[in-house]
Each structure stands twice: as structure tokens, then as C-alpha cells.
Specification:
Elements lengths: L1 H6 L7 E9 L5 E5 L2 E5 L7 E9 L3 E11 L12 H4 L9 H18 L5 H7 L15 E8 L5 E6 L6 E3 L9 H16 L13 E8 L6 E7 L24 H8 L5 E8 L11 E7 L3 E5 L2 E5 L9 H15 L6 E5 L5 H7 L4 E6 L2 H13 L5 E5 L2 H19 L9 H10 L3 E4 L8 H10 L3 E6 L2 H13 L2 E9 L9 E8 L3
Parallel strand pairs: 3-5, 10-11, 15-16, 15-18, 16-17, 18-19
Antiparallel strand pairs: 1-2, 1-4, 2-3, 4-5, 6-7, 6-9, 7-8, 9-10, 11-12, 13-14, 19-21, 20-21
The chain binds S-adenosyl-L-homocysteine.
The site of S-adenosyl-L-homocysteine (SAH) has 19 residues, from helix 8, strand 16 and helix 10.
Length: 507
């Protein structure tokens, strides 16, 4: 450390003026002085800024934006007054168009640099990013921590980036307008009935978070109070223990009456979380008003959403991204498809109608239960779901079935019984879709995918760095990169989703 410092001519608290010439991975501005790199949050490419060094390393430093000396043509006034403190959005100062360009380049550069693909080749297969026409109020889910401000007043808001102090948020502009209406009712109720917000330090107080979800096509709204409740509980979880049975929140009936006035209020519940933890939701859910779930429609299918269900948070863009994945899958009605990392089966089920048979694999048991229910509710009979790690379920399935096939000499279309025929097709499907979390696919999973040798692989990714790494493995395994399409699911954040089509080289 000492050595590093002595070599470095720049120090903490030093003020520098620098031109921002590049954009970092998370959307931060990058400037260079004599080869020394400065990462400056909230500085926009094209700005000239004065910045104060917060942390100096040998070759680079993190600096705090003090003043914009010359404004970039890509700079705009943040729409949200607390955008800089809140930590939820990183790019509100950059025009939406420039932001889309940044995300397109980020995907492209990762595939070139980390995936080792030729730049010109990648440019030739990349399709333009799918942006939003109206990049505000796109989130269907919000989770507000409830606490007190310095004056002791109850407030709802967000934790300031990487801290545990709550910044009051009147109206978050990426969330739905109903959030504010609901929070106003909740806070007024808490003040009136003396309901204490949870205090992280002492572990005392009742209300920890308020979760609001909205079905964008149905309009239905769900509110779930995450509470540090240690009293008596109603019978079974989630079966609609209507208000009156147990009062989880003082004045519960009055609270539900007030909230029921919000248009399309459909479900009010509590989630019990008494742990000292960062995890927001407690697993025990009791409905205190209305239904247990809300419904939403995606790709023409109905999905039931409970407080704990995973459901993509930007339904408009999800529809477009999955539409792209479906187009890449190019199904004609008879194909066999595996959907790995399937969640509640959104992609699996939206492909079922144009496939012969679809298989979904997902690690979370509740999500698989949801997927099965969603299949049933939509009358889908050609979907099968497996619960487990993709990197375990797929190899086990492959080993078991290829042994069986070997021992009785089954081949595709050999006139065997339907089940055997299905199994053979599942061993060598037409399409494999993957939609893994940020860490990407496990190597064992990729290896098995290659053995199963589908004609097409559709890779849906939320992290273009791990995507690039996995594309290299698939490409070396005999697949050709055909199309790449980024999609902006999270406007004003540095994140970008991507759909990729790969085709087996010999087809
Ligand atoms: N396509 C899905 C969501 C994909 S998000 C949808 O739209 O609903 C990634 C999913 O992968 C999550 O549901 C997560 O629980 C699951 N997951 C994470 N690791 C996994 C693994 N090793 N094997 C299978 N699923 C996994």
C-alpha cells in the first residue's frame, strides 16, 4: 500500500479538472490526465468537470463530481430531484438516446474483448438495441423501506447508495403513480395509529417494507407489508386469513378500507420477517384483504403473481425481449425445446404454443410450482418442468436417457411408443433457450448443451460480460453466432439485457 502511494502523484482530496472521454461499465464518466484514469460517477461523456479524488490507486482513481465546467451535449437535467443520492438510477443525467448507444456499445465491446470475436463480424450481426418509447414509470414492482427521518417523522424511501439511511421518496419516476398514493395512505395510517416503523439497529418496531406490485395489462394492484410481527398468527399461510382474524397491524381494518379505495386494489397481505437480515421478504405470507394473487398477461398468457413470485419488473420490455427470443427460436409447431433457468416458465410457456414439447428447468421450487400452475391455468399440456440446478438436471437427464437409448437401440422416429420418442427428441432438441442469472451458465451446463447439439441456441442474458465468456465456449463447441440484440429493460441504470441466436455450424 505505502509503496503504491509513493508511486502515485495523485492523492485523496486533490481537485482536478478533466474532460470526460469515455463511459465506464456502470455508466460512470471516465477521464484521463497523462494516462492516469479517473472514474467519476454522474459525469457525462463530453463534459468537462472539476472532481475531487476520493480514492487514489497507482494507475486510476475514483473521484467525486464537484462541478460541471462545460456541459456535454449529451447531458440533461435529471428528472428526479434525488437521482444522485438515491443510488437506484445511474444515468439520469445522460440523454436517453446516448444511453441506448452506450448500452449497445457495452454489449458489442464485451463480445469483442471478452469473447474474442472479431469486431467487424460482431458489427455485422448486431441488431439495434430495443429501447423504450417512454422510458419512465416502467417498473411493475417497488419495495420501499419504512423508517424515520431525522425529525422522527415516518418516511418511505430508498436506502442511499450502499448505506442504510433512508432517503424519502415522494414519487419515484420509474415506478407507477399508484406507489405514492399507497405510501401516503400507509404513512398517514401509521402516524394516526401509532404504528412504529422497524428500526434496523434495535430490531424493534413493526413495519419494515411496503411492497407494491401492479399487473400492467390487468391493472390489478397488490400491497404486501413486510412486518416484524411476533404475535398470534392465523391458521395457514397465504390462504386468505381475512382481516378480523388476526390484527397484524394496529388498525388493520381501517388501513385495508383506506387502501381499497385505490383503483384496482386486488390483494393486501403481510409477510412476516423477524430476522435481522438484508433479505426483504419473509416467507410466511397472510392475506388480510382481497385475493392472494394478482394476474397479469404476458405474450397472451395469464400469470398469477404472489408476493414472493419472481416476475420480470419491466413488462413492456420483457414482452419485446421474449418476442425476440421467440423469433430467434423460429418454431414451426413440432419442435422440442429446453428452457433452462426458466423461472415461473414465462419463456417456456410462451413457446409452448408453437412447439411440440417444451421442458423448463429452474432451481427455485416455488417458481417451478408457479410454472406448473401457469401451464395448467393456460391449458398448456405440452410443458414439463424440472426443479434443480441446470448444471445438474441437464447432465443427469442426458446421461440417463442416452444410456437407455443405447441399451434398446432407440432412434428418433423409430415408431416406438410416444414416450420413448419424446425422450429421444428431448436428448437432441431443436432449440435450447437459456436465461441465466448474472453469473451466466455453469460450464457443465454448457458442456451438456453442446452434447445435446440442438440446431439453435437462444441465449437471453442480463450480463454481457458472462454472456461473452459463454458465447466463446459455445462458438468453440461448434456454434455460429448469428444475431445479437440488446434490449433496454432498465432505463437510467447501467444494465442491459441481450438476446443472442446461435446456430449449429453444420446446419
Ligand atoms: N426466464 C425467467 C427468469 C430468468 S431469471 C422468467 O422470465 O421468469 C434466472 C432464473 O434462473 C431465476 O429464476 C433463478 O432462480 C434461476 N437460477 C439461478 N441459478 C440457477 C441454476 N443453477 N439452475 C437453474 N436455475 C437457476
Amino acid at each position: 500500500m505505502g509503496k503504491e502511494k509513493s508511486l502515485c502523484q495523485y492523492q485523496k482530496d486533490q481537485m482536478l479538472t478533466v474532460e470526460i472521454t469515455d463511459i465506464g461499465n456502470d455508466g460512470e464518466g471516465i477521464g484521463k490526465i497523462d494516462g492516469y484514469t479517473l472514474f467519476i460517477k454522474d459525469a457525462v461523456i463530453g463534459d468537462k468537470v472539476r472532481a475531487k479524488i476520493m480514492k487514489a490507486k497507482k494507475n486510476y482513481a475514483y473521484a467525486h463530481l464537484e462541478e460541471v465546467v462545460e456541459k456535454s451535449s449529451y447531458r440533461q437535467e435529471a428528472k428526479c430531484p434525488i437521482a444522485r443520492q438515491c443510488g437506484g438510477c445511474q444515468l439520469q443525467n445522460m440523454t436517453y438516446e446516448r444511453q441506448l448507444q452506450f448500452k449497445q456499445n457495452k454489449v458489442r465491446n464485451n463480445i469483442v474483448r471478452l469473447g474474442g470475436f472479431d469486431g467487424e463480424f460482431v458489427d455485422s450481426i448486431m441488431e439495434p438495441i430495443i429501447g423504450m418509447d417512454e422510458p419512465w414509470r416502467y417498473r411493475n414492482k417497488a419495495q420501499y423501506p419504512i423508517g424515520r427521518n431525522r425529525d422522527g417523522k415516518i418516511v418511505a424511501g430508498y436506502y442511499a447508495g450502499r448505506t442504510h439511511s433512508i432517503i424519502p421518496v415522494d414519487d419515484c419516476l420509474i415506478g407507477v403513480a399508484e406507489n405514492k398514493e399507497i405510501l401516503d395512505i400507509v404513512i398517514a395510517h401509521m402516524e394516526k395509529f401509532g404504528v412504529a416503523p422497524y428500526d434496523e439497529v434495535s430490531g424493534k418496531g413493526l413495519v419494515r417494507h411496503v411492497l407494491v406490485r401492479k399487473g400492467f395489462t390487468s391493472g390489478q394492484i397488490m400491497v404486501c407489508f413486510v412486518i416484524n410481527y411476533r404475535g398470534r398468527k392465523s391458521g395457514s399461510a397465504g390462504v386468505g386469513g381475512k382481516s378480523g382474524l388476526v390484527e397484524y397491524i394496529p388498525g388493520q381494518q381501517a388501513l385495508c378500507d383506506a387502501l381499497s379505495g385505490v383503483t384496482e386494489m386486488t390483494s393486501i397481505s403481510v409477510s412476516i420477517n423477524t430476522e435481522k437480515t438484508n433479505v426483504i421478504m419473509g416467507l410466511e405470507i397472510h392475506t388480510i384483504w382481497g385475493k392472494d394473487t394478482i394476474t397479469d398477461t404476458l405474450k397472451g398468457l395469464q400469470f398469477e403473481i404472489s408476493p414472493l413470485s419472481f416476475y420480470q419488473v419491466n413488462p413492456k420490455q420483457t414482452d419485446k425481449l421474449y418476442g425476440q427470443a421467440i423469433e430467434y427460436a423460429a418454431l414451426t409447431g413440432s419442435e422440442t425445446v429446453w428452457d433452462l433457468y426458466c423461472g415461473i416458465g414465462t419463456i417456456t410457456l410462451s413457446m409452448a404454443g408453437s412447439a411440440g414439447k417444451v421442458y423448463g428447468v429452474e432451481i427455485i421450487p416455488e417458481a417451478i410450482e408457479d410454472a406448473k400452475n401457469n401451464a395448467r391455468n393456460n391449458g398448456i399440456k405440452n410443458a414439463e418442468f424440472y426443479c434443480g440446478k441446470a448444471e445438474e438436471v441437464l447432465p443427469e437427464f442426458y446421461e440417463r436417457l442416452s444410456k437407455e437409448a443405447e441399451s434398446d437401440g432407440t432412434t428418433v422416429g423409430s415408431g416406438m411408443s410416444g414416450e420413448k420418442d419424446d425422450n429421444t427428441k428431448a436428448l437432441h432438441p431443436d432449440v435450447i433457450v437459456v436465461d441465466p442469472p448474472r453469473k451466466g451458465c455453469d460450464e457443465k451446463c454448457l458442456e451438456t448443451m453442446l452434447k445435446m447439439s440442438p440446431s439453435r441456441i437462444v441465449y437471453v442474458s442480463c450480463d454481457s460480460a458472462t454472456l461473452a465468456r459463454d458465447l466463446r465456449i459455445l462458438s468453440d463447441g461448434g456454434y455460429e453466432l448469428k444475431k445479437v440484440r440488446p434490449c433496454d429493460m432498465f432505463p437510467w441504470s447501467g444494465h442491459v439485457e441481450t438476446a443472442v441466436l446461435l446456430q449449429r455450424s453444420d446446419t
